Amino acid sequence: MTDAAELRRRTAELLAAHPPAGTDRLDFLKARFDAGLAWVHYPEGLGGLGAPRSLQAVVDAELEAAGAPDNDPRRIGIGLGMAAPTILQYGTEEQKRRFLRPLWTGEEVWCQLFSEPGAGSDLAALGTRAVREDGGDWVVDGQKVWTSSAHVARWAILIARTDPDVPKHRGITYFVCDMTDPGVEVRPLRQITGEAEFNEVFLTGVRIPDAHRLGEVGDGWRVAQTTLNNERVAIGGMRLPREGGMIGPAARTWRERPELRTHDLHQRLLKLWVEAEVSRLTAERLRQQLVAGQPGPEGAGMKLAFARLNQEISGLEVELLGEEGLLYDDWTMRQPEHVDFTGREAGYRYLRSKGNSIEGGTTEVLLNIVAERVLGLPTEPRTDKDVAWKDLAR
């Protein structure tokens, strides 16, 4: 059985064969994957060693101490946090071997084609159609929206309606879509920050081979739940040091600018600091729970806390800065590869955090998930549960 000592030995062998100072970054990442040190809990040959998930920290610490490059996880977060666990659980062996290695190394960026203009909070109402031609390729037509990283993505995880004659949750199939194929059009959506980190995507006659289907035909909703549960953990359960995330800049401003302090602001900052620390430790516990199985609806609670805290902390920071908090450095329209909450000023954090209660599941929907699936409260009445999708009012 692989233990911490064995992982340290394997890591030392990797570093000896591929010294970080003299090895090309991508070559090092490929070698790390092939050595099973990318995701140690994944199977052998797929970036792992079948080791306990908790031992990943042993490898990460050794590599960080040696100055080894990472795979820029913020840039490829959708692939790492959502696509990879879904492919691992539902993909064929051929799909796993084709997609997981370049996904982890960052050679291929992934995006998520789920939400639509008429199907966001009610995702199962999606209308993008996939029609199969004579038992071969699927032809997809529709529109997706709020697609982060679509402008740099090579692949997308996509859910589409394949049977309009059954209730909405049962007529969905899950695919991997090539973002470079003809018929895929990406248009930037400019946000309140001035940036366009996400997009709308139009699919017109896009052909997807059946070999790029994940799971069974019509079982896409169940497959998507794996993606969504992992997405909430990825957003709300990310690993942070103490005073990591939004609370860090606010606390730093408080320490460095004593002339801005008031008693009321002090009390509010203390409260938010404690809540941020509690949330950080709870996220650590959630990650430890993942060692024993798949993420559950508990991730929804963490994502709720993440959104609320970010908005309250960024609001306090702007108020603490007074007139300075109203300044904004750059409204230039650009398409970044990832969100940088702490790399810019307070005004950016305040505006960007408004989206935290929408992306990854709206606060209102997540409250229902926590109420029904965590607390076991009665479900809300659903009149459309047994109605064919084609007969739903739209």
Q: Bin the strand percentage.
A: 5-15%
CA radius of gyration: 22 Å
Strand order of the largest sheet: 1-4-5-8
pLDDT averaged residue by residue: 92
Overall geometry: globular
At a glance:
This protein has 394 residues and is α+β, with helices and mostly antiparallel strands. Helix content is 40%, strand content 13%.
Tell me about this structure.
By secondary structure, this protein is an alpha+beta fold. It is built from eleven helices and eight strands. Helix 7 packs parallel to helix 9 (298-321) and helix 8 runs antiparallel to helix 9 (298-321). The longest helix is centred in the last third of the chain and has 27 residues, at 263-289. The model has no long low-confidence stretch (mean pLDDT 92).
Task: Write the topology of this structure.
Layout: H1 4-17, H2 25-34, H3 56-65, H4 77-90, H5 93-105, E1 110-113, E2 129-132, E3 138-148, E4 155-161, E5 172-178, E6 184-189, E7 198-208, E8 213-214, H6 220-236, H7 247-256, H8 263-289, H9 298-321, H10 346-352, H11 363-374
Parallel strand pairs: 1-4
Antiparallel strand pairs: 2-3, 3-7, 4-5, 5-8, 6-7
Helix pairs in contact: 1-3, 2-5, 4-5, 4-6, 6-9, 7-9, 8-9, 9-10, 9-11
